[in-house]
């Protein structure tokens, strides 16, 4: 369907990113994408559900404002926070705090760019489908592979953390191979961090020979090597890696156009504040004995207790990203088999495809978590490979797509154009230099004389 001149004018006005009027939407956006056409409607309409989660069976668009906030916190406030105190140990307090705030603000801005693009294409289910509107089926296929790599890596990081927890709790009585997961509870990671904070404040780090004679070594400004500094920044990037899941949750919200901006502001504001406060306090309490994950900085007994409290959060991170990966496989298999109308129906085929998707996903995660059994390394490698694009690069590409006719319209647009060019360059830099830094660090750890992990699929303790 060719848009009329009036509709083109309305869409052009809507594309202007400087406008915050959330009530403005194009009256009709029709694309032949996937298996069927979708029609966007105005927010004032009683039915603003336009994707397959509200077609065929009962509506799966059930998330309200506070439901979404809770889920976003479960995705973002997880394993990443456990590595942040060690980034201050590497970078120093001042550069580390600047990096925490700066990367957080950039992640906030790029997440808002996703919302801008979603307003125009509300039929999408995830960020991968967004790339299809920009670069066609080829870019969508590449982005789909990249998304699966990222969710597999993040889920694998949860398995690695779980293996560290069990090695700590059992004093390495259990092998590093772990495959069973339980009920998630994202709040537990904050409880575990608070427990470690109290333990460090009362009894100090576990490896201190004499607490009475110990003087904390706090670096205001660190002197890391290029590789050390880059790996520290990659761990911060991992802590803000939830952008990948945002579009998927927009697709399941009752009214994402109205509510997601508030949810995003609440999430990012609290995340930045929480990360900075916890990182500073824990680093200042642990000093030169600060570890990553931070739960291992205290005494063995208290470390066991902290990891025990953190287990539900570890499960939550793995299961949340596992849900994203399995759901992506499920929806695409149903499309390929011509059964997209059964996505929201309880049929034998839909259940069979869903069970197969979940099983296959976790088999791959199990293999990867044993191939890279080191917490810091799997965080850095994940950030360097795909998080760089899903958090920064693709958002910039989407911004260029909706503002391609007004890149230098005024000084504000010119500044945003430069910023988004830098985001693409940053993503490419993280791909190249970030992978080099993270992989060489992992290989050095495998070859270290005092390392208990000698390679992939090792049963050595990674605690």
From TrEMBL:
It is found in: Membrane. Residues 64-439 form the Amino acid transporter transmembrane domain. The chain crosses the membrane at residues 92-112, 147-169, 181-202, 229-250, 262-285, 305-330, 351-372, 378-402, 414-439. GO terms for cellular component: membrane. It is a multi-pass membrane protein. It comes from the Eukaryota. It holds the Pfam family Aa_trans. Its main location: membrane. Keywords: Membrane, Transmembrane, Transmembrane helix. Belongs to the amino acid/polyamine transporter 2 family. The lineage of its organism: Eukaryota, Fungi, Dikarya, Ascomycota, Pezizomycotina. Residues 1-30 have a biased composition (Basic and acidic residues). Residues 1-31 are annotated as: Disordered. GO terms for molecular function: L-amino acid transmembrane transporter activity. The keyword Membrane applies. This is Amino acid transporter transmembrane domain-containing protein.
